[in-house]
Structures are given as structure tokens and as C-alpha cells.
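In response to reviewer comment 3 from the previous cycle, which asked for concrete evidence that the modeling workflow produces usable outputs, we include below a single protein chain processed end to end. The sequence was submitted unchanged, and the resulting C-alpha cells are shown without manual editing.
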Amino acid sequence: MSVLLAWLRAAVYALWALPLAVGPVPPRLRVPRRLLGESVNPRRYSAPRAMWHSVLSGALGLVTWFFAFLAVLGGVRGLLYPLLTDGYENAWGGPTLAGAWSTHLLIGVVLVPVWLLVLAGLGTLQVHLTRAVLGRLGPRWPVAMVVLVCAAGVLLFLGWLVRV
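The workflow returned the following C-alpha cells.
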């Protein structure tokens, strides 16, 4: 149960990081400690360092919100499948409505822990990014990882946009 709670807190922090990215620096250092118990020992932060953190954290926050949107969309489509489709003869679980609906509902329910784990991972990456850019101690790899995740998120968004 405590692992699930930790995942939920990290996912909440991942979603909360986008509004934090456009705010002042002290809450960016305080929220990880209060929500996750992760302290960030600040260095003397400068305006360029705070701006760099805002850009990276904001971009990762947008990717996080897109993943959350996909999770909600998948859950709603699984739950309300009969209301959202024109035909179900060639759908997964078809050719009957009951089979197609149950298949889509099962996929939506099974993927909930996966989406939660992805959001929790993005929240953990946000904490590491805050430590790397605004903190006194911390490795520099989160900056490169955030750039890679954001690039992959842009590609995923463009692929989703073209598909829809």
C-alpha cells in the first residue's frame, strides 16, 4: 500500500510541476520536500538558472499532462466504448458489442497502473531535475534525460495528432 501511495504522490507532483515551473523558485524547492519527502539543498540561484529550470520543467510538465490526457482518454474510451464507436464488427473483441466492449474496458483498466507508473517516473525525473539545476548536490544526467523525454513526447504527440 505504501508503494502505491508513493506512486500517487510522485504522479501528483509530476502534474503539479507545470504550474510550479512558472512560479517563483522557493516553492519549487519546498513542494518536493512537503509532498515527497525529498529535500533539495538550494544553491545560490540566479535568474538564468531559474529560467533554465522553468524551461526544462515546463516542457516536461507539458509531456506529463499529455500522458495524463492519454490515460484519461483511454479509460473513458474503454468505459464508454459503445457510445463512442460507429461499428464494432472489426474491433478488438468483436464481432459482438459485448465482446468489443469488454475487451476495450479490460485494456483500459489494465493500463491504469502502467499510466500511473509512467506519471510517477516523470515526477521522479522532475525531482532529479530540480536537484540538478537548482540544488547544490545532484548529478547532471537529469538535464539530458529531460531533453530526451521531451523530444520523445513531441514525437508521440505529433504521431497521435496525425493518427487522430
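The helical segments are 2-21, 25-36, 47-79, 81-84, 97-133, 141-163. We consider this sufficient to address the reviewer's concern, and the full set will be provided in the supplementary archive.
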